[in-house]
Amino acid sequence: MTHVLTFPFRRGAALVFSAVTVCALAAWTAPFHLHLVKSVPAANATVAAAPDSIRLWFSQPPELKVTSVKVTGPGTAAVSLAPLAERDSSLVVAPVKGKMAAGAYTVAWRTMAKDGHVARGTFAFRIGAASGP
Prior knowledge:
The chain is 17% helix and 35% strand. It has 1 helix and 8 strands.
C-alpha cells in the first residue's frame, strides 16, 4: 500500500526548508559585509592618557565621504574632531582636536561599503585609572 503525503505536511516541510535556507544564507553572507575589525583605543579599554586620534579598521574599504565618527564624554559632551582621514584602504582616522579629561567616552561610527551596505556601531573606552575592584 502506498502512502501519499498530505498537503499540510508538504506545506510544513516547505516552510521549514525555506526557513533553514534563509538562515543559512544570512550566516553565509554576514562575513562579507563591512564591519569594524579593531579600534584604537580598543573597545572597553582603559588608557592612561588621552588619545590624539580615534583609529578604526574595517573589514573592507569604507566610503570616506559618508563616514562619520562622533566621540562623547565624559557624560554627553561632544569631543571636537578634525576631518576624517583615510590612512590605507581599511583604516579611518579621526584626529582629536578637543581636550579629553579623565572619564568614560563613547565612540559612535557610521560608514558604508562600496556595495552600499551601511554599517554602524558604538564602543566605549576610559581615560585614567580603571574604576571598580
